[in-house]
Amino acid sequence: MPTNPKFYTSRTWRKFRELVITQSEGMCSKCHKVFPDTSQLEVHHKKYLKNDDFNKPELAYNLDNVEVICHECHNKEHSRFGYDSPKEVILVYGPPLSGKTTFVKENKYFTDIVLDLDKLQEALTLEPVYSRNTKATTSVLFRLRDTVLDLVKVRYGSWRRAWIIGGYPNSFDRDRLIEQLRVTEIFFMDVTKEECLSRLERVSDERFTYKADWTKYIDDWFKQYTPPSNPV
Predict the structure, then answer these.
(1) Could you give the residue range(s) of every CATH 3.40.1800 domain in the chain?
(2) Which of 3, 113, 171, 218 gives the lowest tally of CB atoms within 10 Å of its CB?
(3) pLDDT of 155-164, one tens digit each?
């Protein structure tokens, strides 16, 4: 886990930590044990801080973004010192320009892996992410995607969470993927067709060049969309 010694030794953080632990009455939010010795407790950020996050009070000192946990539970949370937390697979789906990739970037941790077909295409071709697809690379692209999905399915590797990004408008295809990968959490980017088209008008990358194509992608997604067969 990346850390920032200057932040965690600052007077502001120490005072904030003391306040949060006092409010918890010394109870670990995970195992619910009470620790009279508060040195046995950690104030843990639910959404991990990275890069410039330490300079953002709305994240670093947000009471809704922290929890009090004991050392043992903290080690389990970060899968260290012999603790191995179960791997999570997270599906993020929705229409084009609904913000799927942005959402994952804002919530992923550095030990996570991400399967995004657009990014995979960019890595494969060294062409801009949103340039026009060619039949020459499509078959290889989907073979690579399926290989990564197979590795996620068997939980291969030392990653902690795998984020799967895709449109998946059809509930049958989604349900099959969820079952095969044993998906643990699902996020649907619930954005209207009008909002997606409005965002298309504001983009400044290659998608604007191929605006007619992307308008069709958006139309097709909403025509094909079927809601979850087993809504939670």
Answers:
(1) 5-77
(2) 3
(3) 998 888 999 9
